[in-house]
Every structure is written in C-alpha cells, then in structure tokens.
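Q: What would this chain look like folded?
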Amino acid sequence: MKMVAKKVGKYEVGRTIGEGTFAKVKFARNSETGESVAVKVMAKSSILKHRMVDQIKREISIMKIVRHPNIVRLHEVLASRTKIFIVLEFVTGGELFDKIVHQGKLSENESRHYFQQLIDAVAHCHSKGVYHRDLKPENLLLNFHGNLKVSDFGLSALQQQGVELLHTTCGTPNYLAPEVLGCRGYDGATADIWSCGVIIYVLMAGYLPFNETDLPTLYKKINAAEFTCPFWFSPGAKSLIEKILDPNPETRITIQGIKNHPWFQRNYVAVKHGEENEVNLDDVQAVFEDIEDRYVTEQASNDSGPLMMNAFEMITLSQGLNLSALFDRRQDCVKRQTRFVSCQPAKVIISTIEAVAESMGLKVHTRNYKTRLEGTSTNKAGPFAAVLEVYEVAPSLFMVDVRKAAGDTLEYHKFYKNFCCKLENIIWKPKEGVQSSALLK
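A: My prediction, written as structure tokens:
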C-alpha cells in the first residue's frame, strides 16, 4: 500500500492545491487536532538563489501582524534542513473569482456585502502600516460560511519609519492605480483603495473597467480613468466607484470616506474581533537563521505510483458529502481547482494528456504522475502554465486534478474546457441517474 501523504512535524501533508514560481501550497491535516490546514512549501535553495530571504521574511511577518476575521490566518512557521513550511488557515469556499466566472456578475447587495468585508480587512492592514499591493478577486477567498478572506501577501509592503512613498511597480496591471504604473512614488493606502474600486466594479459588472489587449492602451485608459458604469449600477454605487477610481491620489476618497458613504453604510455591520495580543516574530527570525537544531522531521512519500487519496481528503476536497463536482464537468468547469475522473490506467491517462498537450503546442514536463504544461497566454502578455496530477481514489478509478500555475484565471478556464473536449475518450461519465454518493459505497 502506498503512503497517502508525507509527514511534516505533526502535519500529514497531502495533495498540492496551488502552485507558484517559488512555492507550492499543499493540503494538510494536523494529526493532533484533526484540523485542516494549507501548507505553503518553499525550498531554501530557491529562496537563497533568487535572493528572496527578506521578501519571504516580510510576507510571514505581515501575516502574523494582520490577524483579522477577513484575512487568511497564519498558524505557525516550520523549517526542515531544506524547506520552509508556512502553515495557514485552510479556506474551503474557493475564490471569489469563481463566483464571477459562474454567475457573470453578482447582485448589488451581494457585491456590497463582500466589498464591506474587503474594506474592513484593508482598513485593518492599513492601521498596521501594511499595504497589500495585489488586491484582485483571485486573491479573495471564501470560507465555508461564504465570508471573504484576503490572501496572498507576497507583494505586500510594510511601512518603514520615515518612508512615506513606495516605489516598486507590482501587482496585476488591470487592478493597478495610475500612480503605481508611473515612475513616481506612491502611497500604498491610496493604491490599495483604487484596487478595491476595480474589484467592486468587477463584482457588479462581471467584467473589468479597464481591459485592453495591448498594455500601452490599457495604461492610457487607467491613467485617464477612462471607464463607464453599466446602466444597472445604482446611483449610489456609481457615485462611490467614481470617487474611488479617481486618477488623482490626492483627491481620491479615503477608507474612512468609503465607510461613511451612504451606499456602503447600507446593512453594514462592522466586523468584531478580539483583543490583539502582542505579536512575537522570534520564530520567523529563527526559521532563517542557523536551524540545524530546530528543524521538523520530514518523511517523504513513496513515488512508485499515483498517490492514493483517502476518504478524508475526498470529503474535504468536495467541501462536504456532495461529490457531484467530481463527476459532472459542466458544474465543475467554473472552478479554478478543476478535475475529472477516468477509469483508464494511470499510464494511459498521462500519455494521453501529453499527446493532447503537445498537439496544442504546449511544452510538457512529466514526473511521477504529475504533468506541467507551459505555453504563452493568448494576449502574449506573459507565460501560461497548468499542472495535472493523477490520484488513485479506488481500484481502477483515478481522479485527475488540474490547476492553474501561471497566467490569467479566465484564460485558464477556457483552456480547461478546450483541453477536456480533446480528452473525451479517457474521461469517465456516470450513467444517467447514478448518484455520486453511491460511488463511495
């Protein structure tokens, strides 16, 4: 029997649920409490090679400082001889972006509810001298109860003593404030406010206020704040968005101004959170110092075949006992964390994936039943990448987990739909009337 997961300290680490340039995020379970967590795994060699020690330390420190009900919580930081493990709150509801892709746009009341939670979280960050700098729907997660959680502080900046302006251009172009795109310094707070304005527009409209295929035109429209609100926006919403998307950071509305606006105030209940204890960053410092005598034990899994996925992971993956999303691609194609089921042998699944990917002009890298596909985004704005991993869920039944590794999320959804059409011969479809719950018996 193959090992289901590897062990890192007290955590049983399972499947990969996210992947970036310098880190992987894996689902894990605290073996002492049974709590589900997400573990961000980074190789020390990669951090040193790319001189990212200060940035990673900053990200970890920021997430310990900004504790709030609408921000993903950092539980603890661990290190082995070769890796750093950031243990985070596991958020089960997916991205807010998924709702937009699925519904096209959200109602004004629902949009306002998420916007109120976003502004509460951003206001808390700013009160701690923290600026996110990459606010966008993909970095806004939803928990089991549908409450918003801000994530991904990789581009955040901490306010330094005596330094008022930031100078680094970062983030996603469509959500960036005009002053960030320019070469002049900018205030992190007003830049975050602009991004919040783009987000509320996207939630209510279902599309971006500034969206051009070529960057020069995009930058020109952002600098001039050249946008129009759809006819279904209420006068109150239109009034607030125009005050937020003001190209002049000096006259742009403040967080307090947003909170005082009549449209924002409707049904607003300020979030309550307990008294904050003093944050101790000693463990963060220790992780990056000589840690030969304080590393956690890391037990590797067996790579002789596809990983087994146990019932606990299956249930957590499907967010409850409703497993229809595993077997109904029409329902699942709107999720960033996409997957399908096959009854073909694992080696056949991998070889078919490789052949289809190559026919689409993608570069293919396969290792241990995990395949990475790489290409260029359709608008030539940057790289596109997806990762497919095969799991054995029962004898002769395999689940292929597909996730975006790089590129635009909307473009990824289109890729997934097209890719699955070309894999029809290996994708298993249950007969009409078969209930997914019966598949677990």
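The chain has three domains: 6-90+278-299, 96-265, 307-427.
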